[in-house]
């Protein structure tokens, strides 16, 4: 004889009355509203509510409109602590309220892993979608010119896993890291992208031909320890079909020393300029620089996506190029 099946535990029983009719819900309460946490809540409360003959309800700190729409589609009610919610009784009741801001942002020292220095970790997964350890990820980031700590890498990976962007698997004493949703990661980077802050600028003419200029820049970078890269939009021709701009634009550190090296070859003027140098300290622009100081395809995509309609159309070409690289490695979106 089989032992009686134990009912799944629920966090609360909730009764709602509308007009003269009452509806009873089994509630699952989650302090985090990350995709991973909500997925778990849906799984748990669907099973528990079915066992008890009640309607499923998820209660958490914040529910976005996207999450509310998902709950409605799946026939699950959801309430948050900010005043948003959806109540679903199939065929009888639908109550919807949204638009309230998140009063409980995720408590972490890294406020946004898709922006600023910490976004370098996210970008690294689009360059190489699998790592056998956190240390391997850190080594790859540093090899590509990124400047982050092991602690930052670990914290960012935890959040990316909570957002279901990557998967972490424990294997002995190490943790493997695998990109799951490259398209979603690109969207998150684009939604949170901020152009780098520019300090000093140089706009003028340069008498050096392209190859000679590249050689001078390489020498300056080696001798003076500076960093330089074409802007994302100035790198477009390497990744997509787009009319070439007459002005070569570069981000650089130590603009003063670079101008010293260029000397009489560079003349500041607004008449028919062919060179613009932008002094930028933001480390994200110098991550994963390609040959001839070409920006990474990710930086190119993000700058184009933040531009006008023409730039955004071109960004789609770069986006397809990046995701096609994922597919070629077996990590489709």
Secondary structure blueprint with pairings:
Blueprint: E1 12-18, E2 21-30, H1 35-52, E3 55-60, H2 65-74, E4 77-80, E5 85-89, E6 93-97, H3 119-127, E7 130-131, H4 134-143, H5 150-162, E8 166-171, E9 174-179, H6 182-191, E10 201-206, H7 210-224, E11 228-230, E12 248-252, H8 255-262, E13 266-268, E14 275-279, H9 297-305, H10 309-328
Parallel strand pairs: 2-3, 3-4, 12-14
Antiparallel strand pairs: 1-2, 4-5, 5-6, 7-9, 8-9, 10-13, 10-14, 11-12
Helix pairs in contact: 3-6, 7-8, 9-10
What does this structure look like?
The strands form three sheets. This protein has a six-stranded mixed β-sheet with strand order 1-2-3-4-5-6, covered by helices on one side. Strands 11-12-14-10-13 form a five-stranded mixed β-sheet, with helices on one face. It has a three-stranded antiparallel β-sheet with strand order 7-9-8. It is of the alpha+beta class and 333 residues long. It is built from ten helices and 14 strands. The model has no long low-confidence stretch (mean pLDDT 89). The chain has three domains: 12-97, no CATH class; 119-191, Winged helix-like DNA-binding domain superfamily/Winged helix DNA-binding domain (Arc Repressor Mutant, subunit A), CATH 1.10.10; 201-328, no CATH class. α9 runs antiparallel to α10 (309-328). 37% of the residues lie in helices and 22% in strands. The longest helix has 20 residues, at 309-328. The radius of gyration is 26 Å and the shape is elongated. It starts with 11 loop residues before the first strand and ends in a 5-residue tail after the last helix. β4 (77-80) and β5 (85-89) form a beta hairpin.
